[in-house]
């Protein structure tokens, strides 16, 4: 099967879903506003600058889930989708997804954001396969920790290789769409790397390697 791999944040949606979740929690007074907003902004900047400590970030991002069940959190995520995600879904992103689906390609979102945040977004976009950071669960409740290899930077390559083995597939003919230089390890693995509204570093590398550069926003 031919794979069409998609980063999520700032690729198929016009924003960062992980950062938006933090803003949602702040806006509804579910966390300490000053503390969470400051940390949330710092981690986003670290990510953009290529210096994010993914384990430190996941400890921060998953702490709100600790001792809660998916059922308890589901109504919050439904509200989050309506308020923060629906307005930033990119119509051109949906068209791109449809193009690959119509071609019979297997669609996969591969993201460094955790599965709780991204699972419903993948469903909304019509993409069944999702590779994401996995929140640990025990006895039906989130622990606030992560399990397995985080799907970040080279971790995306590791997690995708595990997925390929599970589905007895290869990267032959594969596409990967991403906005971020953090995804260079995976972009270098696929047959058709595409830089989508890329950051400056990725844009320069894409031009150097004659990779396709795509605008899904209409404002770049």
Spell out the blueprint of helices and strands.
Layout lengths: L2 E4 L10 H11 L5 H16 L5 H9 L7 H16 L5 H12 L3 E9 H11 L3 E10 L2 E7 L6 H13 L8 E4 L5 H4 L4 E5 L3 H9 L3 E3 L6
Parallel strand pairs: 1-2, 1-5, 2-3, 5-6, 6-7
Antiparallel strand pairs: 3-4
Which structural traits does this protein have?
single chain; alpha/beta; globular; Rossmann fold; 220 residues
Structure description:
The chain is α/β, with parallel strands linked by helices and 220 residues long. The chain has one domain (3-214): HAD superfamily/HAD-like (Rossmann fold, 3-Layer(aba) Sandwich). Helix content is 46%, strand content 19%. Strands 4-3-2-1-5-6-7 form a 7-stranded mixed sheet. Helix 1 (17-27) runs antiparallel to helix 2 (33-48) and helix 4 (70-85) packs across helix 6 (115-125). The protein starts with a strand and ends in a 6-residue tail after the last strand.
Task: Briefly summarize what is shown.
The chain has 220 residues and is an alpha/beta fold. The chain has helices spanning 17-27, 33-48, 54-62, 70-85, 91-102, 115-125, 154-166, 184-187, 200-208; strands at 3-6, 106-114, 129-138, 141-147, 175-178, 192-196, 212-214.
Average residue-wise pLDDT: 97
Q: Strand order across the biggest sheet? A: 4-3-2-1-5-6-7
Count of structural domains: 1
CATH architecture: 3-Layer(aba) Sandwich
| Helix content range | 40-55%
The CATH topology? Rossmann fold
